[in-house]
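Problem 12. The chain below contains 411 residues. Write out its predicted structure in token notation.
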Amino acid sequence: MPIKAKITASALKNLKVEDKRLNDTEVVGFHVRISQKGRMKYYLFYRLNGKQVNYLIGSTSQLTPAQARDIAKEKVGMVAQGVDVQSEKKAAKQDYLIQKSHRLGSYLEEKYYPFLVSRNPKTAKKTYQHLVSRFDFLLDKQLSEISAWEVQNWVTKRRELGRAPATINYSINSLKGALSRAVEWGIIESHELSKVTTIKEDNTRLRYLSSYERQNLLKAIDARSRLIRDKRKSANEHREKRNKDLLPDLSNVRFVDYLEPIVLTAMNTGLRRGELLSLKWNDVFFENRYLVVKASNAKSKKTRNIPLNDSVFEVLVQWKAQTPNTTWVFTSGGNTQLTDIKKPWLKVIEASGIEDFNFHDLRHDFASNLAMAGVDLNTIRELLGHSDLKMTLRYAHLAPEHKAAAVNLIG
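Solution.
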């Protein structure tokens, strides 16, 4: 039979495994159970509406007998008032689990990231990691507790560190998107981030190549190709003397690698870097002389067709002949999709002596040359894949003769 005695430190010390249980003599239902391994826990047994319940108070390693007895007395009082303390405990635990899932860190990992994967597997991981790294100070906060003030304060600190406005705005808009999705799913009623002021950017950057700079860029690319050919020739001579297998001969091919064809394609199509890197050979229609930028790879999420002029048509025909068995137009070797061109691009820009010119500026160069040739802005907009004419209007001043001709129509 269970032992009856006042539960004290000394009573617990003398409790044996074979005793199984010690019933307190002061509080009815208050008792200690000892497991086969000697672990002891406090419980409160009670009946409510015919229901028998054994309520776990806690472990003897965490609570003293006096602390456990006080809790037992409190729960006995609640039971006397008709409260089912066991049900309350379960509800509290459920609330905790729900609140845990509503912390930003848990929400991003368990709900938002799988959603991002379902929408766009290519960018999901990048977006998730960006949110987690930029807003690590918010990860333990409940979604409903994230305030506009602390996020605005983060914006101020990022600006003081000299971070680019576009980068800061991207971070804020990504966080807004995550919280807005939580509102849509009914996880929270609303969020405050609409009050966060993003940084107004000067989107009028318009850098294009002068004739002199264009010549220097092409010369730098040509010099790089010659250097690579010379190194390959020297390497093969070295290998031949040692009876080693020779590397592919580069002396009779147009391109030594992907850099020249990708730069020439960018200059003649205005494609974004991501659109170029995502381009597959089945997107290029040589017979009809155009290529397709698929909606899944386009920033606007709209498919567009780009005609191939003579220059880029010749480039792609010759590049295709060199890479007949690849899926991607631009690969890093074999049939592996090219993912970055930063290193060789920066080297040729440095060698060319051109200053303040990014790879993306090749897109501006394409559009600027169209504008200066008198092509109407709506056609330029369609070729660039702009969703509206606002972005394209930056090129309007490059066509003064076109404007003059329009005004003279009413002269």
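Discussion. The two ends are 114 Å apart (CA to CA). Students who got a different answer should revisit the alignment rule from Section 12.3.
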